[in-house]
Amino acid sequence: MSWLGGILFLPVATAIGRALLPSRAALPRSRWEELAASYLLGASLVCVWGTALIAARLTFPLVFWSTLALGAAALIFQLRRRDDGALAPLGWSRPQAGLLGALAVGSVLLTVALPLNEFDPILHFAYRAKILLYQGTVLDEALLGMEGPLGYGRIATHPNYPIGLPILEAWAAFPGGWSDRWVQIPLAFWSASMPAVVALGLRHRSRPAARLGALLVACTPMLYVSDFLHHGLVDLRQAGLTNDAILGGGADLPVAATFTLACALVVLSWRRGSLRLAALAGLAFGGAATFKNEGTALTAVALIAVACASVLRPRPRLRPTLVTAAVCALTIGPWLALRAELPNIDEDYGSQLTLANVMEKLGGGGEPLDMAPPGMAEESRRYAEEGSPLAQRRVTVGLAFGEEFVDVLSWGVLWFAVFLALPVTRRRLADLEWRWLGLVVFGALLMYALVLLITPWFFPSLRLKGIPERLLLHLVGVSGLLVGAAAARLGAWPEVVAAADDADAPPIGEA
Amino acid sequence: MLASRLARLQVVFGLLAVVYLTAGLVQAARDGFFPDRKRYAPWSFSVPGALQVATQLYGKDFTGKRFVFLARDEAEIDPMERRFAQGARRLGAEVEFAPPDRVYEAARGADLLVVVEEEPEYVDLDFDRLAQVMRGRQIVDYTALVEDGLGDQAGFEVLSLGRPPFPPWLDPEFRRFVEYVKENVPEDEAILLVPGGPLSTETPRARWFLELNYELFPRRLYIHDPVGASGYVMEFFRWVREQNRRAPWQGQVGVRIEDRPLTNLDASNSAPTRTLSREELRAARELGVDWIIFWRPVADFRLVDYELIPLERAAGWRRRGRR
C-alpha cells in the first residue's frame, strides 16, 4: 500500500488549488488548464504550509493531517460551489491534442516506471524526505549533527536545500510507508502541467497564441530528457536511466512549473486587476522557493523585472503587484527562517557576489585549480600556461550558454524563438506583458550567468553535471509565455483576435 | 513572424520526446520496472594496475602461470588491456584468449582470468564451474559487469578495473550488504563508519557512505569530518587526503575474523577489520554508537571490503590486543 499516499495526494492538492482559483466565469479556462493550475497551486500550498509548520518547530504528522483536512474541506467547498461557470476549451486540433496527451501521459508514466535512480534526487531530496517522515522535522540531529564530538558527525549532502520536494515525498510515504518508486507520484505531473499553465497565461491574448505557447513548451525535449540521441542510438537503449533524464525526483521541473504558473498569474492579475490572482501568484512564487534556492532567486528577478517594467507606460497595476510581493514575503519568509538554522556547508553565493569578484572574473579570471578533479585540473592548467581563452571563466561560461542555446536535441528551437521574441523595439516595449516577460527571461539568464561567473567551484566540473542546462530549464515555461505573447501581438496567426471569453476583460496596466 | 514559425517547428522535437518516453517505458517494462545495470552503455575506460596486482600475487616471475583473457582476439582489445597481456608475457606468463563458446575449456588450469569484453558469456560467469577447472582464484574485471558477490561465494576474488557505467546503488553487492545491515541493526541504533586502512582512491564512486546513509536511514550513521565527506566532489578529494594524513589506522592492529558472514574470502588481504583507536572508541561512546562498519573505500563495492561488527566486540579486540 506504499502507493496509497501518492495517489491520495493528487485529489488533495488539486482540491486545495481548485478552491483557491476564482470561478470559471471570473477566470475562463479549459479543464486541462484548471487541473494543472489547481494541482500546482495545491502542491505549492502544501509545501509552503509544511515549511512554515516545520520552521515553527511543529512536526510532519501535523503537516500531513492539516493538509489532508484542508483538502477534504476544499473538496466539500467545491461540491457546494454554484457560480462556477462553464469551461472554455482552447480548440485544439486532434493531432495537437494527441501529441499533448501522449507527452503528458508518457511523462507521468515514465516518472513512476522506475524508482528514484539519480544522485541528486536520492541524496539531496529523498534523504531529507526520510528525515521528515521518520524524525518529524529537519531540525534533527540527522542534519544538525554534522559537527559532533572529536570531529565525528552525521552525513548529509546540501543540508540547507529547501524542503518542498521532501515534504511532498514524505506526504506520499506517510500513510503506507516509504517506497523509492511511489514517493514520486506527486512529482509526476510537472511536465504535464507546465504547457497548460502557459496556455492559461496566454489565452486572454488569443487562443491561437495560447495553443502556440503551450505546444512550444510541451514539445521542448528538455522537459523530459537532455541531449537525447546525442550519443546515437545507444540513448534509446538507455532511455530513462542516465542522468540525462529530467523526469523523476529532481527539483528543477517543479521550480520551472510553479515559476511558470506564478508568471502567468501575475500577468492575469494585472489584466483583470484581481487581487486574488495576485495573491495566488505570490503563493506559486513561494512554492518555487520551497523546491530549490533558485526559486527564491527567480522570484527576486521577477519582482525586480516589475520595477524595471514600470519605467515605461503602461505601468503594472500597483495593488495587485503589492499583493503579490507581500504574499511572496509571507510564503518565502518561513523557509528563509528555517534555512538560517540549517548547516551551510557548501554553497554561499551571497559571500561570493562581491564587486571585486565579479570584476575579476569579467576581467579574465580563471578557474580555482585547487577545486578541480585531478584529471581536469591538468587540462585547465595547460590552458592557463598557453594563455588560452579557455582558461578564463567568462569564456567558458559564455561558451556553455552558447552551446545550450543551439543544442536542438535538448531545446528544439525554443531559444531561437525566445531571442526573436525579445521585446527590443519601441512597439514591442509598449506592451506591458511582453516587456515584463522579456525582462524576466533576460534577467534570469543574466542572473544565472553571473552566478556561474562567480561560483567558487570548478566550472568545467559543474558543466559535466548538467549546468547550466538544468538552470535554463527553469525558464522554459516563462519563455513559452514570452513567445506566445509575441506571436499574438504581431498577428502572425490569422485567428489572432481577442478571445470571446475575454472580451470584457479590463485593459491591462495603468496608463 | 519568424518566432511563431519556429514555435511550430518545435512540434518535430516534441515527436523526439515521444520517442524517448516510449523507449523509456518499453525498456522499463522489459526490465520489470526496475533499472537494469546492464542496460547502461559501458565506458571505454579502464584503470591501469592489473600488472601491479599480478606482481603482488605472483612476484616478478610469471613463469608457469597461465592467464586467460576473455576476449576473442588480442588485436581487438583496448591498449590498456593489451599492455597488460604483453607485460604478463614478458614476465613469463602463458597468455591465451578465449572465444565466448570456449570460456571454461580455456580456463582449465588458469591462474588468472581477465574479463575484457562485455558479452554475456564473458560477464555472467558460472563460478562453480570455474572453481572446478581453474587453478587460481583471482579474476581481473575490466568490464565492471562481473557480479563479484557471486564470485566471492565461490571463493574468487574479483578485482574490478573498469569504470562501472551504472549508479552505485544498483551494485548487487551493495544491495546485499544493505539488506544484511538492515536485518541485523534495529532502526533506532547507530553505526560508526571506520576506514580499515589508507584510502587508496579519490574517485567519487568510492563515497559509498553516502548511499549507505540513505539506504540505512533511520539508523544513524557517523563518520569523521562529514562536512568534507558530504560536500562536492572537489571537497571529497580533500577529505580523502586529510583522512590519509590523519591516518586513524596507524598504530592499530589488523584483525582477521574467521566468521565473516557475507564473504568466503576470509583470508583476503582486503579484510578491513582492525582495532579501534582511542579517539574512535571515545567518539563511539559519546555518540551512542552500537555498531562499527569497517570499510575499505574503493570504487567497486565488494563484500570483502566491508564488515559490520558490534561495538563491544570491536572494543574487545583492543582490550585483548587480538590479531
Describe this protein's structure.
The complex is a heterodimer of chains A (511) and B (323). Chain A is built from 25 helices and one strand. With 511 residues, chain A is an all-alpha fold. In chain A, helix 11 runs antiparallel to helix 12. Chain B has 323 residues and is α/β, with parallel strands linked by helices. In chain B, the strands form two sheets. Chain B has a five-stranded parallel beta sheet. Chain B is globular and about 70 Å long. The model of chain B has no long low-confidence stretch (mean pLDDT 91).
Brief digest:
Chain A has helices at residues 4-20, 31-55, 60-80, 94-113, 119-135, 141-144, 164-173, 190-202, 207-218, 234-237, 252-272, 275-291, 293-309, 318-339, 349-352, 355-362, 374-386, 393-405, 408-411, 414-421, 426-429, 432-454, 459-464, 469-472, 476-490, and one strand at 152-154. With 511 residues, chain A is mainly α.
Note the topology.
The complex is a heterodimer of chains A (511) and B (323).
Chain A: H1 4-20, H2 31-55, H3 60-80, H4 94-113, H5 119-135, H6 141-144, E1 152-154, H7 164-173, H8 190-202, H9 207-218, H10 234-237, H11 252-272, H12 275-291, H13 293-309, H14 318-339, H15 349-352, H16 355-362, H17 374-386, H18 393-405, H19 408-411, H20 414-421, H21 426-429, H22 432-454, H23 459-464, H24 469-472, H25 476-490
Chain B: H1 2-30, H2 50-58, E1 66-70, H3 79-90, E2 94-97, H4 103-106, E3 112-115, H5 120-123, H6 127-133, E4 138-141, H7 148-153, E5 157-160, H8 172-184, E6 190-195, H9 208-216, E7 220-224, H10 226-230, H11 233-246, H12 278-287, E8 291-295, E9 306-310, H13 311-320
Parallel strand pairs in B: 1-2, 1-3, 3-4, 4-5, 6-7, 6-8
Antiparallel strand pairs in B: 8-9
